[in-house]
Amino acid sequence: MPFNIVQRRKWFFLISGLVIAAGIIAMIISVATYPERSIVRLSIDFTGGSLLEVQFTPIDASKPTKGVIEDQLTAVFRRFNVNDVRVQRLGTVEENRWQVRTTYINDTTTNAVKAGLNDLGRDQNLRLNEETIRVSTVSPTVGGEVTRAALIAVIVASVFVLGWILFAFRQVEDAVRYGACAVLAMLHDVLVMVGVMSIMGLLFKWEVDSLFLTGLLTVVGYSVQDTIVVFDRIRENAVRHRGEPYEMVVNRSILETLQRSLSMQLVVAFVMISLVLVGGSSIRQFVAILLIGLLSGTYSSTFTAIPLLVAWEKGQLPFLNRGGTKLKTKAA
Question: For the segment 195-241, what is each residue's pLDDT rounded down to a tens digit?
């Protein structure tokens, strides 16, 4: 028999456990670190407030410029009683482009801050590029509604996945196991994505915005679809290879679908890596986290959902009914 994947399921469980544990530790640190007490670093899409993007350009190109620094920008905002300020550089040092997130500020304060930034730049042969200024204001209630909608979407998806698998696999004994393992693999991907985002928020100040939720829901759909493909092959092979041990049927099914899954994943990965390398800074974080999620989805469909199914069938999961070692099908 070729390489036996399901026999090594404990190693796959260990890998998943370590990745998820690292994410959970990062979430705990995040709760203790961020003023919002959140498990990830939140953008104003969720916390509410004002977001300004500004860029400084040389006034006289023939004269040297030093460029502004983070502390100088923060000082300008605090001069106008805006104390909760988070400054992040965008692009290279030479671009002199910044993103500043604050609590909500009205138009009067915004105009005063712009004037202060112009004064700051003028001292260093720089001016505020009016064409590049972008000011966004978001209510925190909007972020709460988006979060609730995403949670509801994940719950509804889980229910539909479980229901569909119960219907499609109704001739397979204990079809609920297939549905439960697919849902657990999906939750595995959600935890991986949130955990990675929490780690990146602590290390590189990545913030969760509405695009992250879009990527999360995309990965949920991708992961479930990939898992169902392998489950369906297990069901087919159960009929073709009656009498074979359960592990052999499952391993055969994985190997028969693995090439297809990896081929599709590589195509998607190459496109996303290209976007990360040459795409704009505004989408780079979204593409990077989506790529991580898709890689997790490919891993979980083969190395989490299927090993869970085998472990459940062999009675190796605590608190769950023990099964036999062969796949049984109900009479048609």
Answer: 999 999 999 888 888 788 888 888 888 888 888 888 889 888 888 88
Between CA 100 and CA 52 the distance in angstroms is 5
CATH T-level assignment (fold) for domain 49-138: Alpha-Beta Plaits (3.30.70)
Roughly what angle, to the nearest 10 degrees, separates helices 140-168 and 175-204? Answer: 150
Predicted pLDDT of residue 44:
76
Lowest mean pLDDT among 78-82, 86-90, 301-305, 309-313: 86-90
- Distance CA(260)–CA(263), nearest Å, equals 5
Q: Which residues contact 171 (CB under 8 A, 6 or more apart)?
A: 329, 330, 332
Please give the single-letter amino acid code of residue 183: V
Domain boundaries, the chain: 6-38+140-313, 49-138
First to last CA, the chain: 30
> Using CB atoms within 10 A of its CB, is residue 323 exposed (0-12), middle (13-18) or buried (19+)?
buried
d(CA 45, CA 273): 26
Q: At the top level of CATH, which class does the domain 6-38+140-313 belong to? A: mainly alpha
3-class DSSP state for residue 247? Answer: helix
Beta bridge partners of 212: none
DSSP β-bridge partners for residue 49: 138
Residue whose tokens read 């780079």: 284
Instruction: State the pLDDT at residue 332.
Output: 39
CA distance 106 to 262: 51
Predicted pLDDT at 190: 92
pLDDT tens by residue, 60-69: 877 777 777 7
Q: How far apart are CA 39 and CA 41, in angstroms?
A: 7
Q: How far is CA 215 from each of CA 1, 41, 295, rounded to the nearest angstrom?
A: 38, 16, 13
Nearest CA among 56, 63, 53 for reference residue 129: 56
